[in-house]
Amino acid sequence: MPSSSSSAPSAARPPLPKAELHLHIEGTLEPELAFALAARNGVTLPYATEDELRRAYSFSDLQSFLDLYYALMAVLRTEDDFADLAHAYLARAKEQGVRHAEIFFDPQAHTARGVPLGTVIGGLSRALDAAQETYGITTRLIMCFLRDESAASALETFEAARPYLDRITAVGLDSAEVGHPPSKFREVYALAREAGLKCVAHAGEEGPPAYVWEALDVLGVDRIDHGVRALEDERLVARLVADRIPLTVCPLSNVRLRVIDDLAAHPLPAMLDAGLLVTVNSDDPAYFGGYAHDNFTAVRDALGLDDAALRTLARNSFEASFLDEATRAAYLAEVDAYQGEADAH
Ligand code: ADE
Ligand code: ZN
């Protein structure tokens, strides 16, 4: 079931084809599935009903969200749980016009609870391996390090993941940003690059532009996740434009986590005008009121983005992806051939 504030696009007017590049699989855990998994695993949630849980989705900042996000993960225990979670996301993503999804997961949030890494990756892989055939969606997996854990813990996690690196496209960095600069993770990112992985990092969500500089210059990232605060530094914007570094912006998330006061004041149009390779994504859609296409329609309505701007955002999503060139070209051709209004919903 869609969350109350997300509107499923109609089948008659399929939504604009797009790639989702900033999506935490644990952030797709809808209340219905959380309660079903709690029952299956004998876990007691501190909420009596789904509605009571939904009422807790009122956040004052990133940390207030993370507290609930990590608490609800208690229901994810078995390989089937992770596979069911990913299947539920993919079914929704298909409805939203997502043709390609690069999906984050937080291994330390599970191994710290005694869930083996192989259980997490095994369950997610089972769903992702079926994604193309079942949903017509290509996928990649991005393993994130929790930046509020130690650099040693990130290194340990990376070493534990070595047997599974063929299933992982990139490493990422998430969780509480302020006080945990990217440079803390220099060593593990160097190992990831040596192993041939792509690199991304959350930066400039709550943290300052200096964290975006560090993600670029110390970690050597290929993409910045969020990056909305980059606009505070003109030199940084020039660098991001010159190097065509994509920014995976998450508009509904920014409003729910109070990074931005109001969607109508979102810097997305300024980012597009500056020539940044910006994309629109959903972050933790079960918590923030909408999946990929819901974010597109929300920015269209709040910011008055026209058909051409929405098509640019859809094109950017494939340009910014880690797809091979032939598949990227095929998806870009789908965007160009898209018949409906780009803002169909
Ligand atoms: N983990 C899940 N969502 C996140 C976000 N928006 N920022 C940082 N870490 C996260
Ligand atoms: Zn995120």
TrEMBL record:
GO biological process terms held by the UniProt record: adenine catabolic process; hypoxanthine salvage; nucleotide metabolic process
Textual note on the cofactor: Binds 1 zinc ion per subunit.
Superkingdom of origin organism: Bacteria
Cofactor(s) required for function per UniProt: Zn(2+)
Site location (Important for catalytic activity): H226
Location of the Adenosine deaminase domain: 17-337
Record keywords: Hydrolase, Metal-binding, Nucleotide metabolism, Zinc
A cellular-component GO term for this protein: cytosol
Binding site for Zn(2+): H22, H24, H202, D283
Enzyme nomenclature, EC number: 3.5.4.2
Listed Gene3D superfamilies: Metal-dependent hydrolases (3.20.20.140)
Catalytic residue list: E205
Similarity annotation: Belongs to the metallo-dependent hydrolases superfamily. Adenosine and AMP deaminases family. Adenine deaminase type 2 subfamily.
Function: Catalyzes the hydrolytic deamination of adenine to hypoxanthine. Plays an important role in the purine salvage pathway and in nitrogen catabolism.
Stated name of the protein: Adenine deaminase
